Structures are given as C-alpha cells and as structure tokens.
Amino acid sequence: MVSENQKILKQRAESLAAAIPSAEQKGVCIPVLTFFLADEKYGLEAEYVDRVIALKRFTDIPCTPDYILGMINVQGEILAVLDIKKLFRLPDKGITNLNRVIVVGYEGIKFGILCDEVAGREEVPENEMQAKLPNIAGIKSALIRGVTKDRLIIINTLEFFKDKRIIIDEKV
User: Fold this and answer.
1) Domain assignments of the chain as residue spans, ordered by start
2) Nearest Cα to 84, choosing from 135, 131, 138?
3) How far is CA 22 from the centre of its chain?
4) What HEC string does 19-78 produce?
5) Which fold has domain 24-162?
6) Which among 86, 53, 55, 56 is positioned nearest to 68, based on CA atoms?
7) How far is residue 96's CA from residue 118's CA, in Å, rounded to a whole number?
8) Torsion angle, alpha carbons of 143, 148, 151, 153, to 10
9) Model pTM above 0.70
10) Which of 35, 43, 89, 156 could pair with 115 as two cysteines, CB 3.0-4.6 Å apart?
C-alpha cells in the first residue's frame, strides 16, 4: 500500500523530470539587465552593457538638456550620464545611495544610464514580447523594443546610440 507522502513525492519527482523546453521551443531569448525607473521595471539588452557602478558623484554639464545628468569619471574615462526618467517623462525620486549607473557601449560610443536600482539579469523570449503598446508615444515609443507579459519594458539600446537627441554638439 502506497502512503499519501509517497504519492506526493512521486508526483513531485515526475514534475521535476518533465522535459524542460529547449531554446528552439521557447524561441530566441534576449539576455537583459533589469532595473527600476520610478517603480517601473526596465531591461537593457545585455550585449551593450559594459558594467554597473554606484553613482558616487557627478559633474553638471552646463547648457545641456535636462535628461543629461552630468559627467562621471570611470577609471580615467569621462562619460556622460543620461537620466532617462526625464527623457521618458517619469516621476523623479531624487538621487539616493541605491542609484546606479549602467555603462553601455557600442562602436566606440560609451555613456551611462542612471537607474533607481538594478534588479538583475533575465532571459526574455523574443516571441513573448509585445512589439509596442499603443499608449506609448514620442521618444519613449522610439526607444522601446517591447513589453513582456510581466510588464518588463525592454529598451531598444541600439536606438539610443543612433538617436540624434543623445548627441550634444553645441558651442557656448
């Protein structure tokens, strides 16, 4: 006679032994670094992420748009830091000790993106991502790659490097 505990253990063993779907079954997965901006969860394509550092101090840059937070020194390299909350018109929480700068790079261009808090790294199946939401407009729409069913907003990191609004070339 099989006891109730043995039945439960057998069911658990069978469920654990079930085949895990392969990458082909899931579709192509995009590795992303996840982080928070104004209580919304965002993801940057990990292939463009160089490193994540704590925001200790920065230098203001005069005559720049409000979404340029300033400059930082990262091991002798001077980088601009974007506050994309302002670019996306999200509420500002101010700078805290949880803020991090995500350093991204592509074809010799590097800059930092300010975030409220880094959440971690995830694999997002591309076929499970909604292309774009109809209620997202303007620059946010141009820079969003898609949204997952878990409401993770995937930023099209490559578009940041191509966007003319990011490059500041003014003389004062």
Assistant:
1) 24-162
2) 138
3) 25
4) CCCCHHHHCCEEEEEEEEECCEEEEEEHHHEEEEEECCCCECCCCCCCCEEEEEEECCEE
5) OB fold (Dihydrolipoamide Acetyltransferase, E2P) (2.40.50)
6) 86
7) 13
8) -20
9) yes
10) 35
Put residue 150 in one of left, alpha, beta given phi > 0 → left and psi -120 to 50 → alpha.
Answer: alpha
Residues 6+ apart with CB under 8 A from 18: none
Tokens of 54: 């704590």
Task: Retrieve residue 90's tokens.
Answer: 């999200």
Q: 134 by DSSP, 3-state: which?
A: coil
Q: What pLDDT digit, counting tens, does each position of 15-48 carry?
A: 766 655 544 455 788 899 999 998 899 999 999 9
**What is the side-by-side strand order in the sheet with 109-115?**
49-54, 100-106, 109-115, 77-82, 68-74
- Asked if 34 and 42 touch (Cβ cutoff 8 Å), the reply is yes
**Tokens 């929480």 -> residue:** 93
Tokens of 140: 């946010």
